[in-house]
Amino acid sequence: MEHEDLRSLPVDEVIQKVGVSRAIGIKHVASLLFTYRCTIACKHCLFNCSPWQPDVYISHEDGVEFMRQLRATDRVIHIAGGEAMMYYQKMLAICQDANKEGCAPHFFETNASWCVNDHITQTRYEELKNAGILGVLISADPYHQEFVSPEPRIRAYKWAVEIFGEENVAASNTSYEQLSEFRDIVKNEHKLAEYSLHHVPRLVGRAGDVLTRFYNDRPLDELSEDPLWHGGHKTRDCKSEFDSQEMWEIHIDPYGNIQTCCGIIIGDAHKKPLLEWMKQGFHVENELVNMVYENGPYDYLDLAVKYGYKPKEKYPQKCNMCWEARKFLRPYFPETFGPGEIYDTEREHKKGES
Fold first, then answer.
1. What average pLDDT does range 208-235 have in this prediction?
2. Which of 23, 162, 281, 308 has the most CB atoms within 10 Å of its CB?
């Protein structure tokens, strides 16, 4: 079947036909951000995840309820983070109870740092499969491999294919040599700059603070057609990142915050189910969300100036302009520009050096 024909089918049917990996691009995704803590601290992390983040994770009750809400979107559902496998038993218990209601996540994301031997890797994959999970996404790039050696990543992929099937593993069969090359890239400033410029991240979160040195600043009027996190229309506004029909990805975090663009809270899953927010439109009740929906981050920059922000004449990226304005505005609007984990990059940087 063609891509558009598959998109009209229910998500579970699409996965049955083509597997989790292909279904992600067809139906798009919705995730439970299990925690902002992570075993590593990647330089490109939009959510600013690290080992030094607060020991906060989704409660069991919320985890199961948010799975119900996420499943109602007809998207491919996954558990993300941070690194949810830091709280493996709690994650497994949520999946088991969600599975009893037919709303287990389709896959989970991992950096593979927990795959320390074959027994642990095989056992956990099998337990998660028995809890209803169909597949896994395993990261591999210079940023992750700065912290994760080749062996756990290779082990994670091998057992994932064995237990879930290759069509349900969103990961490449990256060789030991390639993974080693990734580690070499991040150790070399010139190589890292070259890699970053050829694989441009959204310059928000930690990426917005530590990778901007590789990019040239550009006048504001040149930023308007920059692509968004997941592509979208190249326009001044950010509608495609916030419109429920167009957005590529949507998240519910441990606090019940609904986000699609990292660090802009567009709803509360405790107050109203996710699907109701999506049907209503996230920009309807929140003027700050409506600003970026209608006019992109330029309105945030203007608002920040009114509160005393001294804008630069140039920024390297439209998303970075947004990030800088939001960091300044967060103390005035913490209910929208949050949670704190994403914004407290200075604290994270200091702890990372200690």
1. 88
2. 23
Pairing mode, strands 76-80 and 107-110: parallel
pLDDT at 354 over 50: no
Residue 59 resides in a domain = yes
Report how far residue 106's alpha carbon sits from residue 78's, in angstroms, rounded to the nearest whole number.
6
- Cis amide bond preceding 339, omega within 30: yes
Domain residue limits at 50: 1-174
CATH of the domain at 100: 3.20.20.70
Q: Is 50 exceeded by the pLDDT of residue 85? A: yes
Model confidence over 123-141: pLDDT tens digits?
999 999 999 999 999 999 9
SS3 50: strand
Would you say residue 167 lies in a domain?
yes
C-alpha 79: how far from chain center: 10
Tell me the mean pLDDT in the region 61-73: 98
1 pLDDT band, cuts 50/70/90, is low
Q: Token pair of 249, please?
A: 């990805």
Alpha-carbon gap, residue 305 to 170, rounded angstroms: 43
8 A C-beta contact, residue 156 and residue 115: yes
Residue 105, pLDDT score: 98
| Integer Cα distance of 133 and 64 in angstroms | 14
**Residue 200 in tokens:** 């441009």
| N-term to C-term CA, the chain | 54
Number of domain units in the chain: 1
CB 240 within 8 A of CB 246: yes
In the chain, the percentage of residues whose pLDDT exceeds 70 is 95
Phi then psi dihedrals of residue 184, to 5 deg: -70, -35
Tens digit of each residue's pLDDT (9 = 90 or more) over 280-293: 999 999 999 999 99
Strand-strand pairing, 265-268 and 29-33: unpaired
Structure tokens, 157: 């992929």
Other CB atoms within a 10 A radius of the CB of residue 7 amount to 15
Residue 162: inside a domain, yes or no? yes
